[in-house]
Write a structure and sequence with these properties.
about 850 residues, alpha+beta, Beta-Lactamase, 5 domains, seven-stranded antiparallel β-sheet, six-stranded antiparallel β-sheet, 23 helices, 37 strands, about 40% helix
Length: about 850
């Protein structure tokens, strides 16, 4: 039987045409005893049985035992009211073709939907989604996030147009991101009235994530049911095959759309928006690829929710920081009324606004763009009458408070916070009017006459841009604004009611902090004095005169001071070894510092190691200047360093060309510093040899004190940035590649190289069609495309004078004809370096790019 279904009673549950499904699949409805009671009339086309014959048969007479066993196993996983399980590539009948199944419960019925499997051996849905999410996570702003998500979904599905459609509070929607094929009219920035997506449809979008219409002109397949069961009672809200309202089909026809798909975007379980995919001819994609798109939509929803929550958290965190400072300062005020009014500028830093008014003890304090004092008094009276003791907020003041029409140009929206137990104290934030032009896809206020489908409205036929200027509204107050307002209200109550307690607590905290700082300062001063005392005692015992004592002691203290300056200038961060040696050479040798050569990787030393090495290098430099290679005019010192296999730093000191060296007759304090400081302080090694031809030393500093760094100065970095070649691409780039994952990787490289848009084609036919739609400015052609090659595409691009490069995995064996012999050929896999090298061969720069 072909049931007639009442489509008007949708208030209880949103049911879209439960009496029919889309023709590319079949549907079986079974009871708890696994007997079939409802089936689609096209089941015979898919399973080789007449649709009417299937009704009232046991399931095991229609499907194979193995298929039934697989379905039973999945039923146990159906948890929750809207759960749907999927099985891919299941053979339903003996010797039959594989099918993809969707299984879910609808009341007392078990719904089994199937569609023929589409073999895609080179598609790994999990890997695709992982790569797509990796691209999306690299974005920064919300606009970039939405745009990149639309681009990734277009690459996955191949639809002509993919939009990110966001709902506003009034139910209208806006296209906030769009990726469309060349030659298509852009929809970016257009607004659509709430009536375009009615309430019933939004509830369905919130319940199930993906909806596809492969061909809007395909006739629906009706459902057949047993006499004891009727399809009118069947809720197909969670069906993947359910037909859509003919109103929606007519709407899509009016837009010229041949196929569509939507993927829901939810935030905190509520419908935030949609990925709206349009194709201008019939298009069907496999169930597995649709599942990947659905998973991507779910993961994108989590990322979006996290990004928006992160923005809110940062906003609220800044507000809380101001709030904490406000509490600290307010604690010193003698009277609560002064504490409230004196912080009017701080309030403006907490919540984004254009002005603030404080009403306290009968006085008004204003800051920024606000109504007059008399107008504020009237607003306070209105708030206390209509919302006593509660936060009140509106972005369109004239709708809530009629007298606000007089000052809506200065304050179109307000947020009022009561700040005392009595109704006379109030804090009000104001926002200016944000006059804006909204571009609608057709007149949103247009009324429509009754259509041919019964007592309902017909869909819009005109999608021409209709512009409206919206006035009298401010930027809406967000949930984050309201949370901050509530927190501020509590804070101000605490300031008023517990002022004395807060002040005492802050004083105790300040005293404890001061005692801790004094203790830390005392500790540091004692350490410094102990070190200086040790240097004095040791230097005194190794010198023969007061002048020599003063010189030696002064030099050692200066070495420590220079090291300390270098460390503290970097906020006690690791400091460069090269800078240490240069500093000692320059400070002690003056114009002889050029006779000290240095070489080694850019490394920095931990502050403790840096201070220790400062004394060691100072003693080495002093001894060389007095007795070693630097004592005359011919000697040289070479200081080199390297990292060994354990990442420890090896420093070699080599003197040559100076007077003959004699080992010292006794070990002085300087020699002791050289030989024992590094082993004692750093657990490293030190070796000092007095060779006849020059002093040789080797020092080893453990890896935990060493850090490899880039010592490029800011000016050097700026010069390198200025000299770096700019991206050589712009406009649209074409990729011809038969492997989707490889194409996605190449797409990212071309975008980073400067391309504003990238079209992808998997074969010669698609590539030629893309060129016909819009001539690209550059192309990357995979030479071998399965059973064909891209030579024909290359010839077409050469005729159009479009620069391009070939890519191949066959090296020099690539069959490139003579007329294309000058085209650069790169080896797979694609990398930034190989593509950039090819672009340089083509001499593609911004100055020489094709128009």
């Amino acid at each position: 039987m072909n049931p007639q279904v009442d489509l008007t009673n949708c208030d209880r549950e949103p049911i879209h045409v439960p009496g029919s499904i889309q023709p590319f699949g079949f549907l079986l409805t079974v009871l708890s005893d696994f007997s079939i009671c409802i089936a689609s009339e096209n089941v015979g086309h898919h399973l080789g049985r007449d649709g009417a014959d299937v009704i009232q048969r046991p399931l095991d007479e229609v499907l194979s035992p193995a298929a039934i066993k697989a379905i039973r196993a999945r039923i146990d996983h159906l948890t929750g009211p809207d759960a749907v399980e999927r099985i891919f590539g299941l053979t339903l009948t003996a010797g039959g073709k594989p099918f993809d199944l969707a299984i879910h419960f609808s009341g007392a019925y078990l719904i089994i939907e199937g569609e023929p499997s589409i073999a895609e051996p080179d598609v790994n849905s999990g890997e695709l989604v992982r790569l797509m999410l990796g691209r999306v996570r690299k974005t920064r702003s919300m606009t970039e996030l939405a745009q990149e998500a639309a681009r990734q979904l277009k690459t996955l599905t191949g639809f002509d147009r993919v939009m990110v459609y966001r709902f506003h509070a009034d139910g209208s929607g806006e296209v906030m991101a769009e990726v469309a094929g060349g030659g298509l009219e852009p929809f970016l920035g257009l607004h659509y009235p709430a009536s375009d997506i009615p309430r019933q449809a939004r509830i369905l979008y919130q319940r199930n994530w993906l909806r596809i219409i492969s061909d809007i002109n395909a006739p629906a397949t009706l459902l057949l049911s047993a006499p004891t069961h009727t399809a009118t009672l069947l809720d197909l809200s969670m069906s993947v095959l359910r037909s859509v309202s003919p109103i929606h089909i007519e709407y899509l026809r009016n837009m010229g759309v041949g196929a569509s798909m939507s993927v829901s975007i939810l935030r905190e379980g509520k419908l935030w928006g949609l990925f709206a995919c349009h194709h201008y001819s019939p298009r069907h994609i496999s169930f597995e690829r649709r599942t990947a798109a659905e998973l991507f939509g779910q993961m994108f929803s989590f990322i979006l929710e996290g990004r928006e929550r992160e923005v809110d958290i940062n906003y609220e965190s800044r507000a809380h920081q101001v709030q904490e400072r406000l509490m600290e300062i307010a604690a010193t005020h003698a009277h609560s009324s002064g504490a409230i009014a004196d912080f009017v500028e701080d309030y403006r830093k907490m919540i984004e606004c254009d002005g603030v008014a404080v009403w306290s003890d009968g006085h008004v304090t204003l800051s920024g763009a606000t109504p007059t004092q008399d107008e504020v008094k009237e607003v306070v009276q209105f708030v206390n009458r209509t919302s006593p003791g509660r936060i009140c907020a509106t972005s369109e003041i004239a709708k809530l408070y009629a007298s606000g029409e007089a000052f809506r140009d200065r304050a179109a929206g307000f947020l009022a916070i009561p700040i005392s137990r009595t109704p006379r104290d109030c804090l009000i934030f104001f926002r200016r009017e944000q006059a804006r032009s909204v571009k609608w896809a057709g007149d949103p206020n247009k009324s429509y006459s009754e259509g041919p489908l019964g007592p309902r409205l017909t869909p819009r036929k005109s999608f021409e841009i209709w512009q409206e200027t919206v006035r009298g509204q401010s930027t809406p107050w967000t949930s984050a604004d309201l949370r901050i307002a509530e927190s501020l209200r509590i804070t101000l109550l605490e300031v008023i009611l517990q002022l004395a307690d807060l002040a005492a607590r802050e004083r105790r905290t300040a005293q404890e902090r001061q005692e801790l700082m004094v203790a830390e300062l005392n500790h540091r001063v004692r350490n410094i004095l102990s070190l200086v005392r040790g240097l004095v005692n040791q230097s005194k015992s190794t010198t023969n005169s007061a002048e020599e004592f003063a010189s030696v002691l002064g030099g050692r203290i200066q070495a420590l001071a220079r090291a300390h300056d270098q460390i503290t200038s970097l906020n006690w961060a690791p400091a460069a070894l090269r800078a240490l040696v240069e500093s000692e050479a320059g400070a002690y040798l003056g114009d002889r510092a050029g006779r000290v050569s240095m070489g080694g990787p850019d490394v920095a030393l931990d502050p403790k190691a840096f201070s220790t090495m400062a004394l060691v290098v100072h003693e080495m430099m002093t001894n060389s200047a007095k007795y070693g290679a630097l004592a005359d005019s011919t000697g040289k010192v070479e200081v080199s360093w390297r990292l060994d296999a354990n990442s420890s730093l090896i420093i070699d000191w080599s003197e040559s060309g100076g007077p003959p060296v004699q080992p010292p007759s006794r070990r002085g304090f300087g020699t002791t510093i050289i030989e024992r400081s590094i082993p004692f302080d750093l657990n490293g090694d030190a070796e000092l040899r007095f060779d006849l031809l020059g002093v040789q030393a080797k020092f080893t500093i453990p890896a935990n004190y060493v850090e490899v760094v880039s010592l490029m100065t800011p000016s050097q970095q700026q010069r390198e940035a200025e000299q770096a070649p700019e991206p050589g691409l712009s406009g649209t780039a074409l990729i011809v590649e038969d492997n989707l994952i490889i194409a996605m990787s190449a797409e990212v490289i071309l975008l980073e190289a400067g391309a504003r848009h990238v079209e992808t084609a998997a074969n010669v036919k698609e590539a030629m069609a893309s060129i016909d739609r819009a001539v690209p400015s550059f192309a990357l052609l995979d030479l071998n495309l399965g059973a064909e090659n891209s030579i024909a595409v290359g010839r077409r691009l050469q005729d159009l004078k479009v620069p391009f490069i070939f890519a191949t995995g066959y090296g020099e064996r690539a069959p490139i004809p003579a007329e294309l012999g000058k085209v650069p050929v790169i080896q797979k896999p694609y990398t930034d370096d190989t593509i950039q090298a090819a672009l340089r061969k083509l001499k593609l720069t911004k100055a020489t790019e094709p128009a």
